Amino acid sequence: MKPSTYLATAAASFLCGLQLASSAAVVDISASSAAKCVCSPPIGAFWFDVARGAADKEQQFVNSYFSVNDRLTPSCAVSPANTHDVAAIVRLLAKASCQFAVKSGGHGILTASSNIVKGVTIDLRAMRRVSLNKHSKTATVQPGAKWIEVYKYLDALGFAIPGGRAGDVGVGGLTTGGGNSFFAARYGFVCDNVKNFEVVLGCGKVVQANNVTNPDLFTALKGGSNNLGIVTKFDIVAFEQSDLWGGTAQYDKKTIPAQLKAFYDFTENVVKDPYGSLIFVWLYFPATKSLVIENLYEYTANLSGPVTTYPPPFKGFAPDSPVGPPISNTLRVTNLSSLTGELNSAANLSREFDIYKVNAFYEYASIEFQPLPRLFTDHSIERGGNVLGLDRYHDNNIIFLLDMAWNGTKYDAQIRSLADNVMGNLTTYLQGVGELKDFQYLNYAFQDQGPLGGYGKAALSKIKAASKKYDPEQVFQKLVLGGWKLATAGTGNKYTH
C-alpha cells in the first residue's frame, strides 16, 4: 500500500487528522491510555513496534544509545524527516496525552534521558543536515547530527563552529545543555554561539527564537535543556579554521604534584592566550591497580606544518617542565574531526591500555578536572547571556567530573558507595574552605544532582517564565519524563524519572 493511500484511509482514525511527510513514520495513538501508545504499520525510513515483533529494528534502535541506562524499548519510535514532521508528531502526542522522549545523538548517561518505556521516542537522527553560509559566517545544523559529522563537513570548507569535544555526541542535547568546547576561551559556551533556534513548541507550533524574535525563549534555551520544546534547527556562528594542534598525552602518577601546579597556572592564565583548551584526567584501572594521568591538549590557532614545541599555554606541561616528558602521546597538527573522533568516550581510553573488562567489577574510574575560567562567562555576556547562572561568579573555577563504568546492575550499590565517598569527601572539603559552588554542568550531572537548581534563582526563574509562556499546557513538563524538570528544580529531589 502506498503511503499516500494509507494516510488517506487512516486519517479518520487519528485523534487529529495530521498528515506527515511520506518519508516519516506515523504514530497512531489510543486516547484511552497514555501507556498504550503504539505505532501504525511502518511508513518510511524508520519504525518498529515491539508488539508486532520487528526485532531487528528494535535492537538496532536500542543499541544506538551510548549508555546502557538509556537502552530501553519504547512502545514505538518515530523518525521525522523535517520540522513539519516533528510539529505534527508533537501535536498528535500532546492531543493524546501520550508520554514521549526526544533523542538527538543518544549520548546521555541517565536512565530515560532520551528514551522511554511506555511511550513514544522521537528519534531525530534522520534530521542531521549541515550547511554553511560563508558570507554570513553561519552554519545551520539540524539536531540529529553528531559533532563528528558537523566537523567533517566544515573541515572540508576550512571552517569550524564551537561544538562538542567528543565526536559521537549529538548536537541537540549538548547545545541546549550549555555545551563546552575547545573554543570556549575564544567564544564562550556552545549555546552562546547560537544565532537562532527553530523550535517546535508543545502545541506543535514552529517558532524562531533569537535576540529580536522571542528573545526570552532564546535566552532560556541556552541551558534550559529539554524543558521548552524540540529544537529542529540551530544557526551557529562559524569562523575560518584550518588545522590545529592537539591530542592526548599519558604520564606516570608520580607527576601529579607538578601536573596540579601546571593545571592551576593554565586556568589562571588562559585569558592571556585563549587558543588553549585542557582536560586533566586521572584514570584508575582496578584490574591492574594502575593509575595513569591522561591530559587532553588542544591549541586552536590556525596552523600549518609540524609543531616542534608545546604552544605557550601548555609550557607548564612541556617535556622540559617539572612535569617531564609523557610516557606516550598522540599530539599532532590535524583537523577538528580527527581530534574529536579520538575523544569519543572515556571507555575508549581503557581500551588503549588493553585492560578492558578484565577481572574487576568495574572497568575504570576517572576523575576529570576542566578549567572553567571567568573568561567563558564574559563571552556569554557579550553575546546576550544564557541561563547557566555563571555570571554570579567573578573568579576562575573548575569542573570536577567523576566517571565510572562497571559490568552489570548487580554492582550498582558498590559503585554508588564508592562514588558517594569520593564526592562526599570532596564536597565537605570544599565547603570547609569556602570554595564549593552551586553550579553543576547539566551535561555531566548524575540523576540525583540538581543542575537546574544550581543555575541560581534568577536564571531558573527565566526558564520557568519561558516554559509557562511558550508551553502553557506544560507538555514538556508532564509528557517528557527524561531529564531535569522545572517542578523539582532546586528542591533536592533532582531527577524526576
At a glance:
The protein has 497 residues and is α+β, with helices and mostly antiparallel strands. The chain has 14 helices and 20 strands. It has helices at residues 3-10, 55-62, 83-96, 147-155, 171-176, 184-187, 215-221, 256-269, 336-342, 346-352, 374-382, 412-432, 457-470, 475-478, and strands at 27-28, 38-39, 47-49, 76-78, 100-103, 120-123, 130-133, 138-141, 159-160, 194-200, 206-209, 230-237, 239-240, 243-252, 276-285, 290-303, 328-329, 332-334, 362-372, 397-406.
Characterization of this structure:
The N terminus and C terminus are likely disordered. The chain is an alpha+beta fold. The longest helix has 21 residues. Strands 14, 15, 16, 17, 18, 19 and 20 form a seven-stranded antiparallel beta sheet that branches. It has a five-stranded antiparallel beta sheet with strand order 7-8-12-10-11. It is 27% helix and 22% strand. A hairpin with a 4-residue loop joins β15 and β16. The two termini are 40 Å apart. α7 crosses α13.
Helix and strand arrangement:
Blueprint (H helix, E strand, L loop, with lengths): L2 H8 L16 E2 L9 E2 L7 E3 L5 H8 L13 E3 L4 H14 L3 E4 L16 E4 L6 E4 L4 E4 L5 H9 L3 E2 L10 H6 L7 H4 L6 E7 L5 E4 L5 H7 L8 E8 L1 E2 L2 E10 L3 H14 L6 E10 L4 E14 L24 E2 L2 E3 L1 H7 L3 H7 L9 E11 L1 H9 L14 E10 L5 H21 L24 H14 L4 H4 L19
Parallel strand pairs: 4-6, 5-6
Antiparallel strand pairs: 1-2, 3-4, 7-8, 8-12, 9-13, 10-11, 10-12, 14-16, 14-17, 14-18, 15-16, 15-19, 19-20
Q: How is the biggest beta sheet arranged?
A: 7 strands, antiparallel
Shape: globular
Averaged pLDDT, please? 85
Relative helix content: 25-40%
Q: Supply the helix-strand structural class.
A: alpha+beta
Helix run count = 14
Radius of gyration based on Cα positions: 23 Å
